[in-house]
Amino acid sequence: MADRNVKSAKQLTFTYFSIVAFAIISIHFALLETTLEDFEQLNANNRLLHAKEIAKEVLNENSIQSIAIPPFTHAYIGREQLPAHLIIPDSLPADTAVELKRNSSDDTEFFIMRSELKIRDKLKTVYFLYFDDIYELSENQIFWNQAKQLFITFSLILISLLVILRISKRLTAPLTQLTNELESRSPNDLSPIQPPQGVVSKELLQLVTSFNLYSERIHQLLERERSFNRYASHELRTPLMVMKGAISLLGQSTSPAFIEKQRIRLLHASNEMNDFVTTLLSLTREENLNNLSPRVLTRDEMHNILVEHEHLLTDKPVSWSVDMRGSTVVKAPETTIKILIGNLIKNAFACTEAGTVALKITPDVIQVVDSGIGLGSTPRGDEGFGLGLLIANDICRKYGWRLNHYNNDIEGCTAEIILKTYDTPNESQE
């Protein structure tokens, strides 16, 4: 079940876009306010410095305490000459415009500048007061004009948000459709899914393809497990039946020779089961193959494998042979080799109604060559056919060998084990 605290793509898009839009509008307002303030300060400072030069000439020529300097400036000699309604800071920097406000409900802005001027050979403090009604009006007009532009910008951002939300919905709709399809499927349905309808992106197709490949791997693993279980059941059935039959026969006679015969049958069946289970378990656990001791395959070992499955040739005009050339060294237990070659021999015996089956062994290759029905056909009456190849492939893959099958030029087929060690484990070649 999805976490309720996790937001949808639409919600995330709205959240992130709102944050960006708010940041843009805030920065726009801040820049506008800062620009107007800086421009007003710069304008006042320049006008007051210009008024200072004019006042220097006028005050030296006339004995007056204040003068008006058109169009928007007044000069006052001494702090006591300043208008009483203004709140003047105790400390003012020299030749720098400072913004003031009148002591009233009116928030009209004044700028004041303090300068030291030499008037008729005396150094006096002169205050310059500046106020521009027209600039204040223009400033308000500029602000509201910018506010209109900001409103238009906000409207465009809002429209963009709606468009982006619509696009986001269309882009995420296939994902929602895909999620609904997967949720409605049964747990055992591993069939490939089709790309959803609507706007399908490259990334979505990659997701669908990857999901299908993953499902296919799971399906193959499940089928492999089922085949593995069928194979184990098939292989264990025969020794179990032998053991059951031998146990039932033990109660029918007290002859030492008869009892010994049944004991040997039980021992052989239990050894066969033990070898089989040991090999299967070895395929499921990780082990360092370098720790295995190399050993040489012997003719007797190969001969015994064929003899063990010779009952499959009952009433069949089929002969078999073992051809060993050179010394073949392997790093694998005898039980593993017995099951590996035994499965290939069983398939060859089952697929051959008449002719020959030859086990050919060289230092690098083991071949089982038959004159049977060839690849692509299944022998009648053998439910274990194909399951043996599954375990044979697993054994070869574990030990780094390669198992190949191919039809012969005239009749039958050849199962070939290449004993060369490969860096990459052998893939299934059933």
UniProtKB/TrEMBL annotation:
Molecular function as annotated in GO: phosphorelay sensor kinase activity
Positions of the Histidine kinase domain: 231-423
Ranges for domain HAMP: 169-223
Transmembrane segments: 12-32
EC number of the protein: 2.7.13.3
Annotated Gene3D superfamilies: 1.10.287.130, 6.10.340.10, Histidine kinase-like ATPase, C-terminal domain
Primary enzyme class: transferase
GO terms under cellular component: plasma membrane
Tagged with keyword Oxidoreductase: no
Keyword terms of this UniProt record: Kinase, Membrane, Phosphoprotein, Transferase, Transmembrane, Transmembrane helix, Two-component regulatory system
InterPro entries per UniProt: HAMP_dom (IPR003660), HATPase_C_sf (IPR036890), HATPase_dom (IPR003594), His_kinase_dom (IPR005467), HisK_dim/P_dom (IPR003661), HisK_dim/P_sf (IPR036097), TCS_sensor_his_kinase (IPR050428)
Recorded catalytic activity of this chain's protein: ATP + protein L-histidine = ADP + protein N-phospho-L-histidine
Protein name per its UniProtKB record: histidine kinase
UniProt source species: Photobacterium chitinilyticum
